[in-house]
Design a protein that fits this description.
Elements: H1 2-29, H2 36-41, H3 46-55, E1 60-64, E2 69-72, E3 79-83, E4 86-94, E5 99-100, E6 103-105, E7 111-114, E8 123-131, E9 137-146, E10 152-153, E11 155-158, E12 163-165, E13 171-175, H4 182-187, E14 189-193, E15 199-203, E16 208-213, E17 222-228, E18 233-235, E19 238-240, E20 243-250, E21 254-259, E22 264-269, E23 272-278, E24 291-294, E25 297-305, E26 321-330, E27 337-341, E28 359-362, H5 373-380, E29 386-390, H6 410-415
Parallel strand pairs: 2-9, 10-19, 12-20, 21-29, 27-28
Antiparallel strand pairs: 1-3, 3-7, 4-5, 4-8, 6-7, 8-9, 11-13, 13-16, 14-17, 15-16, 17-20, 18-19, 21-22, 22-23, 24-29, 25-26, 26-27
Keywords: Acyltransferase, Cell membrane, Cell shape, Cell wall biogenesis/degradation, Lipoprotein, Membrane, Palmitate, Peptidoglycan synthesis, Signal, Transferase
GO molecular function: acyltransferase activity; peptidoglycan L,D-transpeptidase activity
Pathway: Cell wall biogenesis; peptidoglycan biosynthesis; Glycan biosynthesis
C-alpha cells in the first residue's frame, strides 16, 4: 500500500509540473487580451464566468447540526432553514438501516424539522434542495451522529400519552441511568392539572421518580406533563435528551376493597356500590399483601409460572404453570394479580383462600363468558384503578412494589422529594 501511495504521489507531481510548464509557455506567447489564451489554458472566460454566476441560486440553505457533528441531541437538535428561497425537498435517513425519517416543511416553505424523536447512537444523512424566485436550485447535505446511550439519559413514563386512567394512577418516570442531580431533574418536570391538585415527586432510589397528589386524583381531571430534560446534566457526564409533553385524563373514580377475611370484594364507583363479588385470596402459607394497589397492566389471557416469582418445587420447577390465566390485572411488580380462576372448584369463591397471593374471581377457560365475575370486573376496570386489600395476615405492600405509593403517608412522601 505504501508503494501505491508513492506512485499516486509521483503522478500528482508530474501533473503539477506539466501545469507549470504549460502556464510558462502561455506566458511566453503573450496575448492579445481577447480571452483566447484563457480558453486555451482551461480557465473560464469572462463571458463564461458571467453565465455561471447567473445560474447560481440565491437560496441559502443552512442545516443544523453542521456536517460531521457528533453527540447530537435526539429532540429539537435537527433543523433545516433557507433564506431567499423555499424548500423543495428534504430527505433524512438513518444511514445504517437506510430508514427514512419523516419530517415536515413549514407552511411558508422556509423550514423543516423531523416529526418525532430520533434514535440514539445513530448516523443520519440530510439531503436538501431549495429554489429561489427564478427557479434556480440550491443543494446542501450533512451527515451527523446522535448522542450515545452511554452519556445520555431518558425517562420512560407511565401512564401513556392520551390515555384515560383510574384515580390511583401516579406519574412514574423510570430513568435508564442513575440520577445524582435529582433536584434539577425533578424541577425539570412540570405538571398541570385541571383539578388544581398539588402534585409532589418522590424518589425511589436513583432511577425512579413518581409524582402524585396527597389524595387520589379527582375524577375527570386532565393532567399535562412536560419533561424538559434536553441538555440537562442528570449525573456527571450524563446529559438528558428528552423534551417531551404528554397528557392523560382521569376517568370515573373506582375503588374496590377486597376483604380477605370475608372473601368478598366490594366495587364502588363514584361513591356508589356497583357489585359485591366473591373472591379467593392468598392462603395462610402465601397470603395476599394488604394495602392499596393500583392496576398497572391488563391481560385478557396470560401465562403464570410459579418459578418466575420464587414458587418452585424440589426439582426447581414452578409449583404451578397455567398457560391461559383469564382476565388478569397486575397489582404489583412482584407478581400479585387479580384474575380469573377456572381450575378451582366454584365453591371456594366467597368461602376460602387458596392462592399463592393473588386475588381470584370465578371464570371459565378461554375468557369467553362475559357473565363470569372475573370478566365483568375486567371490563369495568381501568389501568390506574385502586384495589385495596384488608384483613389479610400479610404485611402492607411496599410503596415501590408496583405503582403503589399510596401506602406511604403524605409527610413521608414529601420527604422523598429532592425539592
Amino acid at each position: 500500500m505504501r508503494d501505491g501511495m508513492r506512485r499516486r504521489g509521483a503522478a500528482g507531481v508530474a501533473v503539477l509540473l506539466s501545469g507549470v510548464l504549460t502556464l510558462g509557455a502561455c506566458g511566453l506567447r503573450g496575448g492579445d487580451g481577447d480571452g483566447a489564451d484563457d480558453a486555451k489554458a482551461g480557465r473560464p472566460t469572462a463571458s463564461e464566468s458571467d453565465a455561471a454566476s447567473a445560474d447560481i441560486s440565491d437560496a441559502d440553505i443552512s442545516i443544523t447540526p453542521g456536517d460531521m457533528a457528533d453527540n447530537v441531541g435526539i429532540t429539537d437538535s435537527v433543523a433545516v432553514h433557507v433564506t431567499n428561497g423555499t424548500l423543495d425537498t428534504v430527505t433524512m435517513r438513518a444511514i445504517d438501516s437506510d430508514t427514512e425519517v419523516p419530517g415536515t416543511i413549514s407552511a411558508d416553505g422556509t423550514g423543516w424539522s423531523p416529526d418525532g424523536q430520533l434514535s440514539r447512537a445513530t448516523r443520519y444523512e440530510l439531503v436538501v434542495q431549495a429554489g429561489d424566485g427564478q427557479g434556480r436550485k440550491a443543494h446542501e447535505s450533512a451527515t451527523f451522529t446522535t448522542v450515545s446511550p452511554d452519556n445520555s439519559f431518558i425517562g420512560n413514563f407511565t401512564p401513556e400519552d392520551n390515555s384515560t386512567v383510574g384515580v390511583g394512577m401516579p406519574i412514574s418516570l423510570n430513568f435508564d441511568k442513575e440520577i445524582t442531580n435529582k433536584a434539577a431533574v425533578e424541577a425539570a418536570v412540570e405538571i398541570n392539572t385541571s383539578s388544581g391538585q398539588d402534585v409532589v415527586g418522590h424518589w425511589f432510589g436513583d432511577k425512579r421518580l413518581d409524582f402524585r397528589p396527597q389524595n387520589y386524583w379527582q375524577a375527570d381531571t386532565h393532567v399535562t406533563v412536560t419533561l424538559d430534560f434536553n441538555g440537562l446534566e442528570g449525573a456527571p457526564g450524563i446529559t438528558g435528551v428528552q423534551d417531551r409533553t404528554f397528557s392523560f385524563d382521569v376517568g370515573r373514580s373506582q375503588i374496590s376493597t377486597v376483604d380477605a377475611r370475608t372473601h368478598q370484594m366490594t366495587v364502588v364507583r363514584d361513591g356508589r356500590t356497583l357489585r359485591t363479588v366473591p373472591i379467593s385470596a392468598g392462603s395462610e402459607e402465601n397470603p395476599t399483601y394488604n394495602g392499596a394497589m393500583v392496576i398497572s397492566e391488563k391481560f385478557e389471557e396470560t401465562r403464570m409460572n410459579g418459578a418466575t416469582v420464587g414458587f418452585t418445587d424440589d426439582d426447581g420447577k414452578g409449583e404451578y404453570d397455567i398457560p391461559d390465566v383469564p382476565h388478569a390485572m397486575r397489582l404489583s411488580t412482584s407478581g400479585t394479580f387479580i384474575h380469573g380462576n377456572y381450575w378451582s372448584a366454584p365453591e371456594i369463591f366467597g368461602s376460602t383462600n387458596t392462592s399463592h397471593g393473588c386475588v381470584g374471581l370465578a371464570d371459565v377457560q378461554g375468557a369467553g363468558d362475559p357473565e363470569q365475575d372475573a370478566a365483568w370486573f375486567y371490563d369495568e376496570s381501568l389501568l390506574g384503578d385502586v384495589v385495596i386489600v384488608v384483613n389479610s395476615p400479610d404485611e402492607t405492600i411496599q410503596p415501590d412494589n408496583g405503582l403503589n405509593g399510596w401506602n406511604m403517608d403524605w409527610n413521608e412522601w414529601q420527604a422523598g422529594s429532592a425539592l
